[in-house]
Amino acid sequence: QGQLVQSGGGSVQPGGSLRLSCAASTFTFSNGYTFSNYYMNWIRQAPGKGLEWVSRIDQHSTKTYYADSVKGRFTISRDNAKETLYLQMNNLKSEDTAVYYCAAFAASSWGQGVQVTVSS
Predict the structure, then answer these.
(1) Are 115 and 6 in contact (CB under 8 A)?
(2) What three-state secondary structure class fits 6?
(3) Which pLDDT does position 57 carry in this prediction?
(4) CA–CA gap between residue 18 and residue 28 (Å, rounded)
């Protein structure tokens, strides 16, 4: 079945930007479904805290949803032809420091997580 493969984490100063990617091209979803069949999500976990849902996008990029904490700064998108999910993060703040995961909840499938550190 494999795993959703994430990339793009790193360290930036406050006010900086990062783009996270989540590739499903090597991942086999169950029941013959593919990446384009699923809502996709970004979730994060800050040090010492629980999981926090960040954003969600529907199968055809017609609907996007954001946590209040990131609204106006983060943008979720997807490319179904490339089977890849993205999270563009702008104007990053120290409180955005966390491990970020992509996930298809309906498929119980998660990426491996990438660290994002925002610090001066």
Answers:
(1) no
(2) strand
(3) 98
(4) 27
Q: Which two three-digit tokens encode residue 23?
A: 């590739």
pLDDT of 32: 76
* The pLDDT value given to residue 1: 58
Alpha helices for the chain (secondary structure H): none
33: pLDDT confidence band, cut at 50, 70 and 90?
A: confident
In three-state secondary structure terms, 12 is strand
The answer to whether 10 touches 110, Cβ cutoff 8 Å, is no
Flag whether pLDDT at 2 surpasses 70.
no
Instruction: Give the torsion sign (CA, 48, 3, 74, 10).
Output: positive
Judge whether 119 and 97 are in contact, CB under 8 Å.
yes
Per DSSP, what are the bridge partners of residue 41?
56, 103
- Alpha carbon distance 100, 87 (integer Å): 10
